[in-house]
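Reminder to self: tokens first, then the designed residues, so the page reads top to bottom the way the pipeline ran.
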């Protein structure tokens, strides 16, 4: 039985990001599973198209990658994605995997960073260990994509509760989509009398498109916090640069 690993992400056309996050993750997996085929797939059609036009590199979609791996003799496939929650994108990926499942004798899919009950505790521990010194006596805001989706909303609510407990109530999650936006977080912070430093962290494996919403521009998180009298400290690194989070992804890979 020939084993293979498929690493799935939204992807990026930025070579530095690809090297630091995505290719590094593939390397880490290859070091732990020697003599095992490893391929990458990008779920974002626009990224794949732009990368092909920019460099000529053809990174496949999930379906195309699975077909290729099957043709190369892989019979047991394990999929690891960089999703942080099982929202729309993760479910779409899962449907693509299911549609090609008969190509293999066995297909296993690792769960996203946060899904089952124990994940909330472990993820909150990771957030606290990585960012506690930077936050100090200030506040923490995790910026996530989010979605107007009941399951995603519930996941973010439970995760915020777990993380906030480790920061004495001074941690929040603000999403770009759905009802848990920055406006709601700012209202909560005002009600609680929060002031001073606010550390903003992108809650995503790579920074990618979140950068435009994070800092620098009008109506960015940084701009809106400053307008409300806070002192924003922006972390411009995705979770994939921190060992504490990489260990959780690899844990889910082993458990798949």
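Designed residues (256 positions):
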């Amino acid at each position: 039985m020939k084993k293979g690993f498929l690493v799935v992400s939204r992807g990026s056309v930025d070579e530095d990001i690809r090297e630091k996050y995505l290719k590094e993750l593939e390397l880490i997996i290859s070091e732990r599973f020697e003599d095992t085929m490893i391929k990458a797939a990008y779920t974002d059609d626009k990224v794949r198209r732009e990368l092909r036009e920019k460099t000529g590199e053809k990174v496949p979609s999930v379906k195309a990658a699975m077909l290729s791996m099957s043709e190369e003799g892989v019979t047991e496939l394990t999929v690891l994605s960089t999703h942080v929650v099982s929202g729309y994108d993760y479910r779409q990926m899962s449907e693509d995997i299911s549609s090609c499942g008969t190509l293999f004798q066995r297909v296993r899919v690792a769960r996203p960073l946060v899904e089952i009950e124990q994940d909330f505790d472990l993820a909150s521990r990771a957030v606290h260990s990585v960012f506690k010194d930077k936050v100090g006596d200030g506040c923490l805001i995790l910026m996530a994509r989010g979605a107007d989706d009941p399951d995603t909303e519930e996941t973010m609510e439970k995760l915020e509760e777990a993380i906030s407990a480790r920061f004495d109530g001074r941690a929040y999650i603000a999403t770009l989509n759905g009802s848990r936006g920055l406006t709601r977080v700012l209202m909560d912070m005002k009600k609680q009398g929060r002031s001073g430093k606010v550390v903003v962290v992108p809650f995503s494996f790579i920074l990618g498109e979140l950068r435009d919403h994070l800092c620098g521009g009008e109506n960015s998180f940084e701009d809106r916090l400053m307008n409300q009298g806070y002192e924003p400290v922006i972390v411009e690194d995705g979770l994939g640069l921190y060992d504490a989070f990489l260990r959780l992804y690899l844990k889910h890979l082993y458990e798949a």
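The chain has a mean pLDDT of 94.
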